[in-house]
Amino acid sequence: xxxxxxxxxxxxxxxxxxxxxxxxxxxxxxxxxxxxxxxxxxxxxxxxxxxxxxxxxxxxxxxxxxxxxxxxxxxxxxxxxxxxxxxxxxxxxxxxxxxxxxxxxxxxxxxxxxxxxxxxxxxxxxxxxxxxxxxxxxxxxxxxxxxxxxxxxxxxxxxxxxxxxxxxxxxxxxxxxxxxxxxx
Length: 184
Known about the structure:
The chain is mainly α. It has one domain (2-181). 71% of the residues lie in helices and 2% in strands. It contains 6 helices and 2 strands. It has helices at residues 2-21, 34-62, 69-96, 105-129, 138-157, 169-177; strands at residues 31-32, 99-100. Strands 1-2 form a two-stranded parallel sheet. Helix 1 runs parallel beside helix 5, helix 2 packs antiparallel against helix 3 (69-96) and helix 4 packs antiparallel against helix 5 (138-157). The longest helix is centred in the N-terminal third of the chain and has 29 residues, at 34-62. It is elongated and about 55 Å long. The relative contact order is 0.23.
């Protein structure tokens, strides 16, 4: 039960990564060539995703059958602490990428910065709320953790919605061609 909640959260984070990298980009540290920008943005999202996946193993260990509700809660708290830290780094990296030197580049940069910040903010809210999970019984914890995971997933689902609305053909092409964007 707890494991499925965790996997749902990770799947959502991966979906956010795919949606963001598959479309448009950021705004922040000055003008950048479209190719450099695509590389920087995709690298930032790849690093973010990898950091979260690396922490997933520890989370799964804390949510193994037989783990106490407190161990599950501690594992979830640790995961969210690390996810927020990784998301803070993502926000910084997206900002540092600057603005792609292309038509609608500023709009794309703003949308991607908003998506990164939105993901971070939703994860930070979840980080604060994990303390409310009950630990008095495994069943109560499992049910609350599943509901918690669904709430986090729902909150994160709309974070990257505006990315598809930005018309940046040159940037889209650069992302399609950039090795860092291929999810290697």
